[in-house]
Write a structure and sequence with these properties.
- The longest helix has 15 residues.
- A hairpin with a 2-residue loop joins strand 1 and strand 2.
- This protein starts with a helix and ends with a helix.
- The radius of gyration is 20 Å and the shape is globular.
- Helix content is 39%, strand content 14%.
- The strands form three sheets. It has a six-stranded antiparallel β-sheet, with helices on both faces.
- The chain folds into two domains: 226 residues, Beta-lactamase, CATH 3.40.710.10; 120 residues, no CATH class.
- It is α+β, with helices and mostly antiparallel strands.
Length: 397
């Protein structure tokens, strides 16, 4: 299975400029339902305080749907289980204390926290299909990686580093990561139907691979809203750890520990030096011309910005952007100034538009899932405004 994780690096933060729902809650729910249909969603589930406000399911949703990169957010919870049990001393424990082969050179400075907040500095190709998918042992591959930046110095979305977390969980606990998660989270929450892809070495994949139903994924969202306490009152994760999951990380306001921080609104404008950035990196002339058409125009959120990309780069704009921009290490914020509003929600998100979004203020949990299908249209089927539409519902409530 080919996971275009460069696309996640681009679109992991969805458009979040929530509109005012003129008709209140019913209109906001109707909007979500309509967009579930137009984006060919296979499952949508909206709950408040555990009560269902909206649910749609296709025949594909009869089986668990892979979460793609939203799997990473569950991997973070496995680290929380180790902390809660005392098996792991601290998020700031050096990885070299677990893998002694890193106790030399710059790798000795890499901590577990850095693997969780994308600041490890490990060399990484944004498109996971180039060097990760199909690799026989993803943990060994991560351990052998060179460093692109000094540990802790730079935020860079990193699939390779996430795969190493699976090895850490197994080495610290003595059990494979999927078994740790099953015993510590899934069983207490009543989650019984799931699959988790593994590499040839038998290790559960960290960057993707977990498949869950919308109802079971919502249980994990509820656990975050309840600060680590299960519905039966059992504490599964430490309250302090749950707070750190969604707190601003050292090098990015957009992420916590493999969980995304969703603003109430955001604005984008093309940077004055965007042309020189594109030229310096040898970006294709056609893609450069298309992006520079933004001029002085402002974009109210990523949904509006991505719609512009569709207009200026064509219907396959995501492929062109991934090839010419993301694969060259150019970040969206290298080209566009970004202004963010206050954080209003937290999310786990994955390729093709897999979403778990929680809104603490109104106790909302929103799930949107889509299975692989022929002719996936990124501009429509990714449903990039899902978080914005959920925030609109929150505002209506």
């Amino acid at each position: 299975m080919r996971l275009k994780s460069w696309w996640m690096a681009l679109s992991c933060l969805v458009c979040c400029n929530a509109f005012a729902a003129s008709g209140g809650m019913e209109d906001a729910l109707a909007n979500l339902k309509a967009k579930a249909e137009t984006s060919r969603s296979d499952a949508m589930l909206i709950q408040r305080d555990g009560k269902t406000l909206l649910e749609t399911r296709s025949t594909a949703a009869a089986q668990p749907i892979e979460l793609m990169s939203a799997t990473k957010s569950v991997v973070a919870l496995s680290i929380g289980l180790l902390l809660h049990s005392g098996a792991l001393e601290s998020l700031d424990q050096p990885v070299s204390a677990i893998y002694p082969e890193w106790a030399q050179g710059r790798k000795r400075d890499i901590t577990v926290r850095m693997l969780l907040n994308h600041t490890s500095g490990l060399q990484n190709v944004p498109n996971a299909g180039i060097e990760l998918e199909g690799a026989p042992d993803l943990v060994k591959l991560a351990l052998a990686a060179e460093l692109s930046t000094d540990p802790g110095s730079t935020f860079s979305y990193n699939n390779k580093a996430t795969n190493l977390l699976a090895g850490i969980v197994e080495r610290v606990s003595g059990k494979p990561m999927d078994r740790v998660v099953e015993r510590g989270l899934f069983q207490p929450l009543g989650i019984t139907d799931y699959t988790w892809r593994k590499d040839d070495a038998g290790t559960p994949i960290g960057m993707a691979g977990l498949a869950l139903s919308a109802a079971d994924l919502a249980k994990l969202g509820r656990l975050i809203l309840d600060k680590g306490v299960a519905p039966d009152g059992r504490r599964l994760l430490g309250e302090a750890f749950v707070a750190e999951l969604v707190a601003e990380s050292a090098r990015s306001k957009e992420v916590g520990l493999l969980w995304w921080r969703i603003p109430a609104w955001e604005r984008f404008t093309l940077k004055p030096d965007a042309a020189s950035v594109l030229s310096r990196n040898g970006v294709d002339a056609g893609v450069t011309a298309g992006l520079l058409k933004a001029g002085s125009r402002g974009f109210a959120g990523k949904g509006e910005l991505f719609a512009f990309f569709g207009e200026s780069l064509g219907p396959r704009w995501a492929d062109a952007y991934g090839r010419e921009i993301t694969s060259r290490g150019i970040k969206l914020t290298d080209l566009f100034d970004q202004v963010r509003g206050p954080v209003a929600a937290y999310a786990a998100m994955g390729y093709m538009g897999q979403y778990l979004v929680v809104v603490p203020e109104t106790s909302l949990v929103g799930i949107r899932q889509i299975a692989r299908k022929e002719g996936h249209d990124f501009a429509v089927d990714d449903y990039a405004t899902f978080a914005a539409d959920l925030l609109a519902l929150s505002k209506a409530l």
